[in-house]
Amino acid sequence: MDYEKYKAIIMSNYKVVIIALLIVISIIIYIVIINPNQDYEVISSMENNIQESTEEVQKVDKRFIKVHLDGEVVNPGVYEVEENSRLQDAIKLAGGVTQNASLKNINLAVFVKDEEKYYIPSIEDEENNEFSYTQNGNKNGKININTANIEELKKINGIGEGLASRILEYRKDRGRFNTIEDLKNVSGIGDKKFESLKDEITVWNMYNLE
């Protein structure tokens, strides 16, 4: 079991392993064959070079995304974070939240997504119910067509099993709905059907206000 675990780690960092091995082999050749009297300081310098090279390779392999933080953060703006970062990580880059921030209904563990905007509400926002939503994150009790499962979708007026399945298939193939009007891109939902259900749906979530 441990063998498979170590094998997986090595395979996921194969570039680092190969470069490190090549550098180690070069050091051995230099010390043993070219200059057998090599002193400790030069060896130490070579070890530092290995570490620096490894760090550079790791840095290149990392992927970064950009997110927009707004609302009650110390320094609102666009920030570059590592892929698979959490909202809490992004907020730290923005200097944290202000004293007026309300985190009561904010999930700091959510993964942030590239090109998304995340708004941290104030205490006043919460008191004025400007960011009211249900336990499932649906604004004002509406069905979120970006997060709803098939049973939740079937609660929408005129949406049956087949149409709900096509909505899920659309999300799988093309990603999230940016506006509720995008629902008309799903086969079987024309202008007339959309007008009959548009007041029951939303694409809003508690983090992204765009």
Q: Do you know the CATH topology of the largest domain? A: Outer membrane lipoprotein wza fold like
Poorly predicted regions are: 132-137
Helix and strand pattern: HHHEEHEHEHHHE
Measured on Cα atoms, how large is the radius of gyration? Answer: 26 Å
Question: What is the class of the largest domain in the CATH system?
Answer: Alpha Beta
The overall average pLDDT, rounded, is 77
Count of the domains: 3
- Name the overall outline: elongated
Descriptive account of the structure:
It is built from 8 helices and 5 strands. By secondary structure, the chain is mainly alpha-helical. The chain has 3 domains: 2-61, no CATH class; 64-127, Outer membrane lipoprotein wza fold like; 143-202, Orthogonal Bundle (DNA polymerase, domain 1), CATH 1.10.150.320. The strands form 2 sheets. A 3-stranded mixed beta sheet has the order 2-1-3, covered by helices on one side. The protein has a two-stranded parallel ribbon with strand order 4-5. Helix 2 (14-34) packs antiparallel against helix 3.
